[in-house]
UniProtKB/TrEMBL annotation:
Residues 839-862 are annotated as: Disordered. SUPFAM superfamilies: DNA repair protein MutS, domain I, DNA repair protein MutS, domain II, DNA repair protein MutS, domain III, P-loop containing nucleoside triphosphate hydrolases. The gene is mutS. This is DNA mismatch repair protein MutS. Keywords: ATP-binding, DNA damage, DNA repair, DNA-binding, Nucleotide-binding. NCBIfam families: mutS1 (TIGR01070), PRK05399.1 (NF003810).
């Protein structure tokens, strides 16, 4: 007896075969207008996408779970799944159902996976942030070498650098890749570093990192005999690059994106900033995780997507190359000095589309007519910008950029001639080729759109040729188009010479029907005109796409040049609007800031109408360490002062003007910030442990060109423990690291170090006390704070009055005992027990005072100036008596 279980259908067998090839991805199986998912994929996708879970048929006696999404809306579902940690294998139909039936009635439509969607391989605008890169990274370790490579397939960027494992975390923090490739078996070694950065880890075969095959793979991609054509790359660097190319071949199913030749970077070329410092300074994201409130969001005035990406790149990677910094500052200065031209330039740049991502989509066959138009429009604006009337010689970088905007006339003319102004999104929709560009297309469109007119014209032609005015061209489903005339005229048409043109087809009771070779051909053309027009446009689309890809190098260079212009103009606009100044960056160890401000805090205060108090900072210690020991109460602005000086150094070395009246900065090689901390519960770390780990990293790495800002070291433990740690940390910074540093503390005992160490100076944030309340002046001055004003700050925070009063009693007792030399235990034993005081009862009024009696008789409107002055003296006497 045959089994009770139904056999697997051919379609389901095809599905299971494809799914077996991609066990770690959700398979989007194309069925007509939907992508369907089955079995465990359906269960997981339905939950992640919040869509209905249904069933279709049975397998092994059980219902097959199923869910689906419309193919035209698939991109949104891709993004949701990617963000939730899934990968998606996209399976398309490779033939129509009609073509499948030619192989047999029950033949299954051919299908295959055409793309594997992962976080690092997205290209669609709807899935990406246009103003940020989307990097795919690969980390390779080959014996004693290690290297990191990264690519953005949506823009074509490809970079590589030698990188020791200890530097992997900071570089991941700088690049923020969406996905990191590592060799199978090494995941555990890197998991902790990668998890700290929040980067998804993808393990690939060790063969992908093999340096020999990797070099061949990358060389073949760029049609070069070896990687030496692009520079000297170590084995680990070649392995990392090869892993990226291999992964792209896998995920893109052989359709490799348009990558630029690999650019080798060196760690010594950019300012080193670790992950904790980036987080503390909120460079590209605020502590809450969003862009709003970050330095990047505050200073971004760019008007193009490529300009915004360049801004983030330079902000994340301030340069250590003095010549490059000065060239960038020259570009900003030029734009600042030519405000009118810069304003016109920004207007033109607003019309520039994202050329890089259009090129990428075209190279991967994910583009459409609008990407062709984007290249046309971008090159058109590039030509316009290159011809703008810049009176003097441009700054060096801008002049180089302007040259890259020229020389695209041939491609631009081709695209302008071929494309309509506003093409549709998809090539299959047709209608994007301009009239007059292709005669064959124009004819097909005319037949498609004006078939009746063409037939009427032929009818008039035949009537004139035969002399039969009653001749008609008609149509039915059996004969198609035919010529019809009465029987009395038929003899003439069947006789020479007309019979050579007109071919008899059918005779009815009253009519005779003919055709001609021309009419038969026209009928075929009319019936096929729509499809023919689409086929021609598709061919022309491919031709235009190939013409663009043949010029991809110059087009990419133009895009980079437009970004350069955009960034220079944007930074000049920022400097003019915010009153920023050009910094002097040199090779000394100076750090002299006059009137420095925190850009983010200043912008926030401006919204509320409050002014920002600017402050000076001078850490110019020559060849020795230079440290400011900063004391003062909480809420007085110490952390803001620390951060603003770090940001000024960073902005200067990225090539921007800075928020200060003047700035002289010797190159900063490393930027370290330990300001603020919180528990790391997932890793079992207390706030104090996090603080110590970050401090240890600084003391173990900072060199004499580093700029270090430290806030409240040692606050997370007992007083004497904390003081001893802070004291030793400051000594180490001064004697061993010899760094420029700002060190904020509440341990006033440390102010004594300024008299013991030549490179330590005391500074404080000025405050005033008025009637028991503290007033913050936010002014940084030389000297040390006499106390921390903690009780007053607690009162401002809203602590109950009873708690504040009790705190004052305890504080007074402790300070008095310390002055009298009492032991700590004795001081505590002498303190009276806390007793919550009952709410004060308002005293009954005792009648009007003499002052009130005097004022009651005064009429201000009738007083002369002399009388008013005498009244003030009288009131003063009454008050004193």
């Amino acid at each position: 007896m045959k089994g009770d279980k139904p056999s697997v259908t051919p379609m389901m067998a095809q599905y299971l075969e494809l799914k077996a090839q991609y066990p770690d991805a959700i398979l989007f199986y194309r069925m007509g207008d939907f992508y369907e998912m089955f079995f465990d994929d359906a269960v997981a996708a339905a939950e992640a996408l919040d869509i209905a879970l249904t069933k279709r048929g049975k397998h092994d006696g059980n219902d097959i779970p199923m869910c689906g999404v419309p193919h035209h809306a698939a991109e949104g579902y891709f993004l949701t799944l990617i963000r939730k940690g899934f990968r998606v294998a996209v399976c398309e139909q490779l033939e129509s159902p009609a073509e499948a039936k030619k192989r047999g009635y029950k033949a299954v439509v051919k299908r295959d996976v055409v793309r594997l969607v992962t976080p690092g391989t997205l290209t669609e605008d709807s899935l990406l942030d246009a103003r940020r890169h989307n990097f795919l990274g690969a980390y390779a370790v080959v014996r004693d070498e290690a290297a990191l490579a990264w690519a953005d397939i949506s823009t074509g960027a490809l970079h590589v650098m030698p990188l020791s494992p200890v530097r992997l975390g900071p570089e991941l923090a700088r690049l923020a890749p969406s996905e990191l490739l590592v060799a199978e078996g090494t995941e555990a070694d890197l998991a902790s570093v990668v998890e700290d950065m929040g980067v998804p880890l993808t393990a690939v075969s060790r063969g992908s990192f093999d340096s020999v095959s990797a070099e061949k793979r990358v060389s073949a991609l760029f049609k070069a005999s070896s990687l030496e054509a692009f520079g000297a790359f170590g084995r680990a660097e070649a392995g990392a690059l090869g892993a990226i190319v291999d992964y792209l071949e896998l995920t893109q199913k052989g359709k490799l994106p348009l990558l630029q030749p690999p650019l080798r970077e060196a760690t010594q070329g950019v300012m080193q900033i670790d992950a904790a410092t980036r987080r503390n300074l909120e460079l590209t994201a605020s502590l809450s995780g969003g862009r709003a409130g970050s330095l990047l969001a505050t200073i971004d005035r760019t008007v193009t997507a490529s300009g915004a990406r360049l801004l983030e790149q330079r902000l994340s990677s301030p340069s250590l190359r003095l010549a490059a910094i000065r060239r960038r500052l020259d570009s900003v200065s030029y734009m600042a000095e030519h405000r009118s031209e810069a304003a016109d330039l920004r207007d033109a740049l607003r019309k520039v589309p994202d050329l890089d991502r259009a090129l990428s989509r075209l190279s991967l066959d994910r583009g459409g007519p609008r990407d062709l138009a984007a290249v046309r429009n971008g090159l058109g604006q590039a030509g316009e910008i290159s011809e703008r009337t810049y009176a003097g010689e441009l700054a060096e970088d801008l002049n180089t950029a302007r040259n890259a905007l020229r020389g695209h006339d041939e491609l631009l003319n081709l695209l302008e001639e071929a494309l309509i102004a506003e093409p549709p999104l998809l090539a299959r929709d047709g209608g994007f080729i301009a009239p007059g560009y292709d005669p064959e297309l124009d004819e097909s469109r005319e037949l498609r759109d004006e078939g009746r007119g063409v037939i009427a014209s032929m009818q008039a032609q035949y009537a004139e040729q035969t002399g039969i005015s009653a001749l008609k061209i008609k149509h039915n489903n059996v004969l198609g188009y035919f010529i019809e005339t009465t029987a009395k005229h038929a003899d003439a048409m069947m006789s020479p010479p007309l019979n050579e043109t007109f071919i008899h087809r059918q005779t009815t009771a009253n009519q005779v029907r003919f055709t001609t070779v021309e009419l038969s051909e026209m009928e075929t053309k009319i019936l096929n005109a729509g499809n023919r027009a689409l086929e021609i446009e598709k061919r022309l689309y491919d031709s235009l796409k190939n013409a663009i890809l043949d010029q991809s190098g110059p087009v990419a260079a133009a895009s980079k040049a437009l970004a350069e212009f955009d960034l220079a103009a944007a930074l000049a606009e920022l400097a003019a609007n915010e009153n920023w100044t050009r910094p002097e960056v040199n090779e000394s160890l100076d750090f002299a800031i006059e009137g420095g401000r925190h850009p983010v805090v200043e912008a926030a205060l401006r919204k509320s109408g409050d002014p920002f108090v600017a402050n000076d900072c001078d850490l110019s210690g020559g060849d020795a360490a230079s440290i400011w020991l900063l004391t003062g109460p909480n809420m007085a602005g110490k952390s803001t002062f620390l951060r603003q000086n770090a940001l000024i150094a960073l902005l200067a070395q990225m090539g921007s003007f800075v928020p200060a009246d003047s700035a002289r900065i010797g190159l900063v090689s490393q930027l370290f910030s330990r300001v603020g901390a919180s528990d790391d519960l997932a890793r079992g770390r207390s706030t104090f442990m996090v603080e110590m780990v970050e401090t240890a990293a600084i003391l173990n790495q900072a060199d004499d060109r580093a700029l270090v800002i430290l806030d409240e070291i040692g606050r997370g433990t007992a007083t004497y423990d904390g003081l001893s740690i802070a004291w030793a940390t400051l000594e180490h910074l001064h004697d061993v690291n010899k760094s420029r540093a700002l060190f904020a503390t509440h341990y006033h005992e440390m102010t004594q170090l300024s008299g013991k160490m030549a490179g330590v100076d005391n500074a404080t944030v000025a405050v005033r006390e008025w009637e028991g309340e503290v007033i913050f002046l936010h002014e940084v001055t030389q000297g040390a704070a006499d106390r921390s004003y903690g009780v007053q700050v607690a009162q401002l925070a809203g602590l109950p009055a009873a708690v504040v009063d009790r705190a004052r009693v305890v504080l007074d007792a402790l300070e008095k005992g310390e002055r009298e030399g009492k032991a700590q235990k004795a001081l505590i034993d002498d303190l009276p027990l806390f007793a919550a005081a009952p709410p004060p009862v308002a005293a009954a009024p005792s009648g009007p005072s003499p002052l009130q009696d005097k004022l009651a008789d005064v009429s201000p409107d009738t007083l002369s100036p002399r009388e008013a002055l005498n009244l003030i003296y009288e009131l003063k006497d009454l008050a004193e008596n």
